[in-house]
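TolC family protein structure dump, as promised
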Amino acid sequence: MTRLLSRPLPIAAVLLLLLAGCATPRQPASEPPARLPAAWLAAQVDPAGSALAPSWWRSLGDPALPGLVDKAWLQSPTLAQARARLAQAQSQRQAAQAALGPGLQTQLAPSRGQMAPPLTPSTAATWTVQSRWEIDLFGSARAARDAAGARADAAGLTLTHARQTLAVEVAQALFAWRHADAQLTLARADEALAGRLARADSEAAQAGTLSPAQAALGQTLAANARAATAAWVEQRGSWLQTLAQLVADDATAIAAQLGSQPLPQPQALVVDVLPATLLERRADLAAALRQWQAAALDAHGQAIAERAPQLSFSALVGRGRWQVDGANLTGSIWNLAPTLTLPLFDGGGRSAATAGARAQEDEARAGLEAQWRGAVAEVEQALLRWQAATASRREAEITRGHWRRIADASQAQARAGLISGQALARDERNAVVAASAALDGAREQTAAYLQLVRALGGGWTANKI
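structure tokens r here:
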């Protein structure tokens, strides 16, 4: 039986322990970077616009989009990776919390053997319960726990940002596919008109009423129309594959669900957030803030560990039974061992670790500022693009209406025999070109809307940092 006695801790040490237990490391508060603009430079052209809703994709009127977003959130490998990283961060936070308390384990150790002749074999059996607890006198372990908690929060915010970004990317791919599908329909109509004109020009050249050069030009235009059709076939297939990759589903099954739908005409968004408060609307900025806070806590804890002593307790209690030469001996086992460790000299290793932790904090703070400034620039660029795209779409729609009326009038004249079939085909081709330009304008406006949605945080509403 072993007895290991120790002197009781001085009262001053106990008081120090109690006072240290009340000290909690502080996380740095976020402040806007210096020299940020007080307001957006790009004027909002439509003050009657709507605020960005959390489920903004449901307001665009495309029946396929909500289902695709839900399926992408459920099946995306990118989100699966983000969820796995969140689970890892949460387990690390739990481990850091567990490290603050005592550990307890039990051990059963039966044995039989002979140490050396001429001793007879002996039997022993012990059962013990052991505990070890490192007292966090000055807050180093609590800083590690809080840092792990901040990283877990950052992982959760990163997952949220990935979800919002994926919704934008799914909408972009769907609208790009719809644009290519509509352009392919126009391209096939234009190809048919160009072929009709080329045949008419060829017949006129054979009759001697049109020069061979002009007939060759018609053949060239028809070839260009066929090439444009092939290009839109490729574009439509490429965007379908992009959509299938985002949704993590079979492209053929997705294509069967899309149907035919015009591109939406999104309503203008009211930007109700200022550059200095953009952190409250973007999950990626909030995640960067949490990473900076974690780095600051790591630096705080490392600075404590560099100079502060460490106090730990280990305890053991149990029962034992020994049998030697037919004699049995049983008894209690206990051991209490406080340990105080004082840092003396390590060649600068701890101070180097502290300096490295502080450098990581500076890096994280600079990264947050860079992301903040980048986010401000993204909103400004998206606002400018939205204004230009809205004006361009409006003008393209006016032009398309003019050419459609011209083509309708030409059809009436052709039925009355007032103009030739070639003149009618040329007017109809001009109407097709104008319709294609209007489609491009609609595609650009929806792309500008989605860019602004992404720059504003994708509808994230958990804005309490």
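Confidence is low (pLDDT under 50) at residues 1-23.
lmk if u need the other ones
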